[in-house]
Write a structure and sequence with these properties.
Blueprint lengths: L14 H16 L3 H28 L4 H30 L3 H8 L1 H11 L7 H19 L3 E3 L2 E3 L5 H4 L4 H39 L5 H8 L7 H30 L24 H15 L1 H12 L3 E2 L11 E3 L8 E3 L7 H18 L13 H14 L5 H4 L4 H31 L5 H15 L9 H4 L8 H5 L5 H19 L1 H14 L5 H7 L12 H11 L2
Parallel strand pairs: 3-5
Antiparallel strand pairs: 1-2, 4-5
This protein binds zinc ion.
């Protein structure tokens, strides 16, 4: 195993090499050598995934490097080919009448996932998928082109974030005024893109035999153990338990600040003393994170040391580097990689608490038998990351300083709760959109405005005319690029907050349950993983009641 990022070498596949590898697997299957075929396929998939991760990471590390751009373009052009070959193998395996034999050799859950995968792809939609990628890329580049002059700086959309939570109310208002002026100016084009995306997705669903895009969207996310009805019940629980709590929290904040009303541009400023910031810059935070993980658990501590010393962290902002943050992995090697851009705000701390959660899960589950089990489906993967955000709470003095630790924990908890109504609103909106594919753009704005009144009745846009008329959803990239994905964060948040409650009562037991969940990786579907960690499924009645009670008492509302 490579324990140094610089040593990772992933050979570049070609159309011919992919076809040859798949022909060899097919030949093994012809001979009835199922175990050997599965092993050869797993090796091929690990090699391909490691190469693809590396190419996309190298591009993100330097978006201006000509060789990195060429490699990324090549990888993107090869991806549909690889998917087609992979689906062909899955189809062939699943066509075998001996399903029990296949499940014994490959794992019952893997077989369930493949069932999902083959139902989402057919060569008949290949051109539509390319068109979908093109439309999504157009939306992304519109957003990337946004530029704002504020506080004597020129910033992009993510650069607006610190201004949107500035302690000075006029600065926050100015940040939101500029943000929504941008969306007002580009709204018609964004409406056109989304209109085309909805039509295209509805059309693909029809070609694959679905009535609407919704069931296809669920299968794309490999959801094998719940559907839209369960998700609707969860949204209802958020409305019943969390919406009143968030309303009380905002009223508490209004009184604390002495505001007349809580306006939209006030919502991001949680702390009257100013949202707590990291106590230092990159090198300081990395050293503090090492101390924090060492204190928490020797497994967390030694894994973080390995990542840091092996060069598996790239966290500093620099020219030419892509924005955002993510955790990626190289399944031939086992050690994941964390990519981020420090901004000097509390979001930097999330790199060590959220992305490190993803990385630790991927590391702990590296010995799972097949590549399908290395990552869970997204709603379960986000438990591993969001739970670590809460499990690190007792050590936040190391990241923000002892005086700000309580304030940080409070801000983080309020942020987690306030996110839920917005998150389920984004989900509900998409269910209505794909149930009514012939709606006009104006009708979609009306849908959003209606749902927003339901889930976030406190929202007061003041003089921000564009979001006041139902345009806020256009700023949410997931609505364009990752349909139905957003609810995953809210399902995971419900589970992560249960870890918070547990760790307040018994931190050692909570950390043990967390580590065991990470080690299970993606070997089971969401519901089973949740149960195995001793958590209440978000789809069960009362999943949020306990958490909300505890939060209300801690936050004094
Ligand atoms: Zn995440």
């Amino acid at each position: 195993m490579t324990l140094c990022f610089a040593d990772i070498a992933a050979p570049k596949p070609t159309r011919d090499s992919l076809s040859a590898a798949h022909a060899a697997i097919a030949a093994l299957l012809d001979r009835g050598a199922l175990k050997e075929a599965l092993a050869a396929w797993d090796t091929a998939r690990r090699r391909y995934d490691s190469w693809s991760s590396l190419v996309h990471l190298r591009f993100a590390q330097n978006t201006t490097d000509a060789a990195a751009i060429a490699d990324r373009d090549y990888a993107d052009s090869l991806a549909p080919e690889a998917t087609e070959l992979e689906v062909a193998i899955k189809r062939r395996l699943l066509a075998d009448p001996n399903r029990a034999g296949l499940e014994a050799a490959a794992g019952a859950h893997a077989v369930r996932l493949w069932d999902c995968d083959i139902a989402t792809f057919d060569p008949a939609i290949k051109a539509d998928l390319e068109e979908e990628a093109r439309l999504t890329a157009r939306y992304t580049s519109l957003l990337a082109g946004a530029s704002f002059d504020i506080g004597g700086q020129t910033v992009n959309l993510s650069g607006l974030a610190p201004f949107a939570e500035d302690p000075n109310r006029a600065v926050r208002h100015e940040a939101e005024r500029q943000r929504w002026a941008f969306f007002a100016a580009n709204g018609a084009e964004m409406d056109g893109i989304y209109h085309d995306l909805v039509r295209l997705r509805h059309g693909m669903a029809g070609k694959l035999g679905y009535e609407t895009f919704t069931p296809l969207g669920y299968k794309n996310l490999r959801r094998v153990d719940y559907g839209p009805d369960e998700v609707a019940r969860y949204r209802e629980q958020v409305r019943e338990h969390v919406v009143p709590l968030v309303a009380r929290l905002l009223e508490q904040r209004r009184a604390a600040f002495g505001w007349d009303k809580v306006r939209y541009w006030d919502e991001a400023l949680v702390d009257p003393a100013g949202n707590p910031k990291p106590a230092g810059e990159h090198d300081y935070l990395v050293a503090q994170a090492q101390t924090m993980f060492d204190r928490m658990d020797p497994r967390l501590g030694s894994f973080f040391r390995l990542m840091n010393e092996g060069g598996f962290l790239d966290l500093k902002n620099r020219p030419g580097k892509a924005g955002g943050g993510f955790c990626t992995s190289f399944p031939t090697e086992g050690v994941p990689f964390i990519f981020a851009n420090f901004t000097g705000t509390h979001h930097d701390i999330g790199v060590f608490t959220h992305e490190m959660g993803h990385a630790f899960q991927n590391w702990e589950s590296r010995n799972q038998p097949g590549v399908d089990y290395l990552w869970p489906t997204m709603e379960a993967a986000e438990i591993d990351s969001m739970a670590l955000e809460f499990l690190t709470h007792p050590h936040m003095d190391l990241m923000v300083g002892p005086d700000a630790a309580d304030r940080f924990r409070r801000m983080h908890l309020i942020g987690a709760l306030a996110f839920l109504p917005y998150g389920v609103c984004v989900d509900h909106f998409q269910h209505e959109v794909y149930a009514n594919p012939s709606a006009s753009p104006a009708e979609r704005h009306a849908i959003w405005a209606r749902l927003e009144r339901m889930y976030m009745p406190w929202t007061d846009y003041g003089d921000l005319a564009y979001p006041a008329k139902g345009g806020r959803w256009q700023a949410k990239q997931h609505i364009y690029g990752s349909p139905f994905y957003y609810i995953d964060y809210t399902l995971a948040q419900c589970c992560a907050m249960q870890f918070w409650v547990k760790s307040r009562r018994d931190p050692t037991a909570a950390l043990e349950a967390y580590t065991a969940l990470c080690a299970r990786g993606g070997s089971a579907p969401f519901g089973e993983l949740v149960r195995s960690a001793g958590l209440v499924s978000p789809f069960a009645d009362g999943a949020l009641a306990d958490v909300v009670r505890e939060a209300a008492s801690v936050l004094g509302v």
